[in-house]
């Protein structure tokens, strides 16, 4: 799936509202590590946006420092293991820690780290 397909509805809304600057700064600038909308010329904005739209969509990495305590996550220790439901405890030294036994901070007294973790989608 291309970025243009993933963000189609948002792009239409942005075009109608005239908030292309915000969209460009939030999505295109981080991808290309370029100057923001305010400092580069319109031709570069158009070219970079066109390139970005034709790239394959990649789910962004999780910024674990912004995940809230007790948020629902999925965890496992190996590539061939099933994902387990857990509640986020904290992130330290590249490791995601979750409350033990699928419990939350309200009921758990311990936590453990996992090799693999991802945010859980509502249907998961």
How would you characterize this protein structure?
This is DUF551 domain-containing protein. It is a single chain. Strands 4-3-2-1-5 form a five-stranded antiparallel beta sheet, with no helix packed on it. By secondary structure, the chain is an alpha+beta fold. It folds into two domains: 51 residues, no CATH class; 56 residues. The longest helix is centred in the first third of the chain and has 13 residues. The model has no long low-confidence stretch (mean pLDDT 89).
Largest sheet: spatial strand order: 4-3-2-1-5
The tally of structural domains comes to 2
Low-confidence stretches: none
Number of E-type strands: 5
What does the oligomeric state look like here? Answer: single chain
Shape: elongated
Instruction: From the alpha carbons, calculate the radius of gyration and give it in angstroms.
Output: 19 Å
- By secondary-structure content and strand pairing, the structural class works out as alpha+beta
- The separation of the N and C termini measures 21 Å
List the secondary-structure elements in sequence, H or E. HHHHEEEEE
Fraction of residues in helix? 25-40%
Number of helices: 4
Largest sheet: 5 strands, antiparallel
What number is the mean pLDDT?
Answer: 89
Strand content: 15-25%
């Amino acid at each position: 799936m291309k970025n243009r397909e993933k963000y189609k509805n948002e792009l239409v809304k942005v075009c109608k509202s005239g908030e292309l600057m915000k969209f460009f700064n939030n999505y295109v600038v981080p991808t290309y590590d370029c100057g923001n909308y305010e400092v580069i010329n319109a031709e570069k904005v158009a070219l970079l946006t066109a390139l970005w739209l034709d790239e394959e969509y990649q789910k962004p990495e999780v910024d674990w420092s912004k995940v809230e305590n007790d948020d629902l996550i999925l965890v496992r220790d190996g590539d061939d293991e099933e994902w387990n439901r857990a509640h986020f405890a904290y992130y330290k030294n590249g490791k995601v820690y979750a409350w033990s036994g699928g419990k939350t901070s309200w009921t758990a007294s311990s936590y453990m780290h996992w090799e693999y973790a991802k945010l859980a989608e509502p249907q998961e």
